[in-house]
Amino acid sequence: TDKYAVVGYPIGHSKSPLIHRLFAEQTGQDMCYEAILIDNEETTFRWSMADLKQRGYKGINITVPFKLDAFEYADSKSSRAESAHAINTFVFNEDGSTTGDNTDGIGLVNDIEINGRRSFKDQRILILGAGGAVQGIMEPLLEKQPASVHIANRTAKRAEVLGQRFETDIPVTGSGWDDIPVTEGYDIIINGTSASLDNKLPPVSEAVIKANSLVYDMMYGAEPTIFMNWAKQHQPNCTVMDGLGMLVGQAAEAFYLWRGVKPKTAPVIAEVRKLMS
Ligand code: ATR
User: Fold this and answer.
1) Which residue segments constitute the domains of the chain, with CATH numbers given?
2) Catalytic entry in 53, 67, 144, 200
3) For the whole prediction, is pTM greater than 0.90?
4) Does the ipTM exceed 0.95?
5) What are phi and psi of 76, to 5 degrees?
6) Protein residue whose Cα sits closest to atom 12 of ligand 1
7) Annotated binding residues for shikimate
């Protein structure tokens, strides 16, 4: 039985062991997956990785607060890991080396395409927030050839800098909340701020939402998030999604890197959601 794990601090509430167990059942893979706490005070990330390798683990997911440590640790990195400047998945190779990847962005993109049944092609995209989570989705998103991407953030400068980083023909712009170009609204709106954690809304004009917009919150919970409720209030016909599908989607891509099999995410999202309520 091949061994995998997620490491983080804290780690007790991680849904990854459940998600990977469901994937393994669905695809008939002989593997186990557990959650391991790394206490930053008592040990180091580097030491913990050496220990896990020595104990025969084949791969690891990395969550808060170690995604940057993971970036430093990897011997080789995928281009989406480089672009995200963070790593959430390690493959421990036979020769002792470590390959790092970031599956968060592709997890979100797949969730919107497969489960939300929406294409990004030629769509006008608005992203709220310019932190680590948003940085991680930019490359997979731009690969889907949207018409344009506007990034808006509390700290305008951060959005502008992030917007300028990508060399692409697709217009990518950045601004503060008050300078979002509204005109006709956006096809896809993604909230990547951590404001929902404090039950706060990014102060954005509701004019950005259209009747047929897809409004996505990277946050999730047992109930619709405050951001999803806000969107529905102003455009009752818009589609809203929370970030549970992104969580399951990033796990599915990690599973694929390790096992070479792509699990279906929809039944797993449904099962995890049932257990949350
Ligand atoms: P993460 O890894 O979750 O992206 P981060 O890199 O700290 O964490 O980024 C948090 C994002 O949420 C940033 O875009 C931040 O805005 P600033 O760049 O201005 O700090 C945004 N954010 C956090 N709290 C917020 C709030 N109360 N209202 C609006 N935006 C908020």
Assistant:
1) 2-102+245-276 (3.40.50.10860), 105-242 (3.40.50.720)
2) 67
3) yes
4) yes
5) -140, 155
6) 193
7) 14-16, 63, 88, 104, 220, 250
